[in-house]
Amino acid sequence: MIDLEQVRSVIAAGLYSHLNMPVVETDVEETPAAYPFIKYGFSGPVLFPDKPVSVTVIPSSTPDEVIERYTEQPSFRMTFLSCSDRPAASLTNAIRLHDWFRIFGYGELKRNANTVVVTAGDIQNRDVQIGSAWERRHGFEVTFRTTSIIDMQQPTIELINWK
């Protein structure tokens, strides 16, 4: 199973530490009152490879069972937005955000979430008008690859009669 909560937690903590600004999930009512801040969210399908799942058998803690471990490497996407009241600040923070995925956070994600960055997309202007004011946004998509591991206990065969 993919531990998306662990991935989300590592990303949010790493970005907060690197950028020193609030990092909030998209569509959460607790949007920070002051600029700048970062928004993120899962934005695409989880894509599983078109090849058979890898199955390995590992010993169990009991002699009556073995564990079948099913392993595959799905990919998924997330969207990241740098939000500010000034265009230059929004773009600068988006570049710093992009750098974290390509350089600083790559190893952190690999170590702590068993996830790697496949691509960090192009930074695009995503400004929105909220009432009479403009929220300056620059954002991009990041594609990740992770490992999905499912363990299933199976009883062992104790006796086979050959005739």
UniProtKB/TrEMBL annotation:
UniProt xrefs under InterPro entries: Gp12-like
Organism name: Paenibacillus piri
Residue span(s) of domain Phage neck terminator protein gp12-like: 11-158
Classification via Pfam families: Phage_tail_terminator_9
Record protein name field: Phage neck terminator protein gp12-like domain-containing protein
Lineage: Bacteria, Bacillati, Bacillota, Bacilli, Bacillales
